[in-house]
Amino acid sequence: MAAPPPARVTTPKAACYQQVDGQRESYMKKDVYQIITDRIIGLLEAGTVPWHRPWKGGNQAPRNYVSRKAYRGINLFLLHAAGFPSPLWLTFRQVQSLNGHVKKGEKSFPVVFWKMFEEQENGESKRIPFLRYHSVFNVAQCEGIALPTPPETNGSFQPIEQCEAVVAQMPRRPAIAHGGGRACYSPREDGVTMPEAKLFESPEAYYSTLFHELTHATGHQSRLNRKEVTDPIQFGSQPYSREELVAEMGAAYLCGHCELEQTTLAQSASYIQNWLERLKDDRKLVVHAAAQAQKACDFILDVRPEDEGPAPSQPKEFKVVALRECPTPEEMQLCDTPQRAADYWRAHITTHPYYNAECECFVVLHLNTRRRIRGHHLVSTGTMDTILVHAREVFRTAIASGASAIVLLHNHPSGEPSPSEADIKVTRDLIRAGQLLKIDVIDHVVVGNPGHASLKELGFFCM
């Protein structure tokens, strides 16, 4: 089912994340990736390759009974592989709301979707996606719910014409050449090579193979820039297998869209055993491959459906927004000495919740042409003796706020304010950057406990 709009999740952070494969990722009491992979493995062990199973498109694709929204990604394969005659599914609550009930002994099927967790870090809000699932039942598993009349068919549908339309309308379509005895896609040439159509067992087999190669082509750097296509990979390697799975699922999606039976991929015992081994080694493989295949098909069909996963990055409109007021006495608003800069630090930096006296913090004071303080910006928080500072972050808000000059401030958790060699080098780099931007760097004050040191007064501004 298409994912609902991203919602704020208030689940405690500790309950949402764990370290997996060296990365932090979401989890629930049961691992969602493992739940889905276990179900796929069960289908394979029963002799069914779910992404090869043909299904009808249009209104016959799996969809929610109430919203009528089609399921997407791995949900489409899982629900269709269940083998029910009806494409309509409901949650348990939806069954109850319709005054129906689930038949005794019936088992539910998982549907995965994304939620957003909002995390505060360094005063900024970050939206982090994590995978969740809920359970659904087919209407055939329920009683007391009216079944819709199946759509009438008159036998006039010509799948070849619809497949041709999909190929013709693909944006930035690669060159398609016919000839030879194999089907393949070349990233270097950005071209698809196909055997002559008359050599295939059926038109369905031809278009299924062509859809497979076009799915590969969506990975080109000029389209979706999938690393399994753009980077050199070895035949039989894990990235190669992952890309082949994406292409097979993509072909299945497009065949379903065209109401075309996919007949070209044999479900041999060796083929099934190969995928069983790979899925048992990588529980996330099938979920991620299905998501990539869905993106590839959306590109080929030139559609922009509701996002079922983390929202892709889009251009944004920016403006400067003040985070909070910092009440400052009139006599402290003029920043013309290192002492006044240090006083401002102790009044407004050390008193804020983000400040950690055991770590180095780097702050920029924004000044107007009369050297009065317009505000400040926390650029970075480091460790007890190290901090990373880049000119881009230092001057970004100064430019946006219209500052004429800036004062650099940072603390030494040791309490000793004497500048280090790194402090001196960073200061001189920022002075040169300020000269290019016509923004004066008038001092760099290192705050200790209780004193402070001015790099300008110490002579380090002379270059």
Write structural notes for this entry.
It is a single chain. The protein is an alpha/beta fold. The chain has 2 domains: 8-146 and 162-301, no CATH class; 330-454, Cytidine Deaminase, domain 2. Helices cover 33% and strands 20% of the residues. It contains 13 helices and 17 strands. The strands form 5 sheets. A 5-stranded mixed sheet has the order 1-7-8-5-4. Strand 13 (361-367) and strand 14 form a beta hairpin. Helix 7 (238-257) crosses helix 9 (285-301). The protein is elongated. Mean pLDDT is 78; it is low at 1-29, 53-58, 151-159 and 262-270.
List the helices and strands and how they pair.
Layout: E1 8-9, E2 17-20, E3 23-26, H1 32-45, E4 63-64, H2 74-81, E5 88-91, H3 92-97, E6 101-102, E7 109-121, E8 124-138, E9 142-143, H4 159-169, E10 175-178, E11 184-186, E12 191-194, H5 203-217, H6 227-230, H7 238-257, H8 269-281, H9 285-301, H10 330-333, H11 338-349, E13 361-367, E14 373-381, H12 391-400, E15 405-411, H13 421-437, E16 440-447, E17 452-454
Parallel strand pairs: 1-7, 4-5, 10-12, 15-16
Antiparallel strand pairs: 2-3, 5-8, 6-9, 7-8, 11-12, 13-14, 13-15, 16-17
How do the helices and strands follow one another from N- to C-terminus?
EEEHEHEHEEEEHEEEHHHHHHHEEHEHEE
Q: How many discrete structural domains? A: 2
Major sheet description? 5 strands, mixed
Percent of residues in helices: 25-40%
How many extended strands?
17
Query: Kindly, what is the distance between the CA atoms of the first and last residues, rounded to a whole number of angstroms?
Result: 63 Å
Mean pLDDT: 78
Widest sheet, order of strands? 1-7-8-5-4
Classify the secondary structure makeup into a structural class: alpha/beta
Q: Indicate the proportion of strand residues.
A: 15-25%
Rg calculated over all Cα atoms: 30 Å
Low-confidence parts, pLDDT < 50 over ≥5 residues? 1-29, 53-58, 151-159, 262-270
* Count of alpha and pi helical runs: 13
Oligomer: single chain
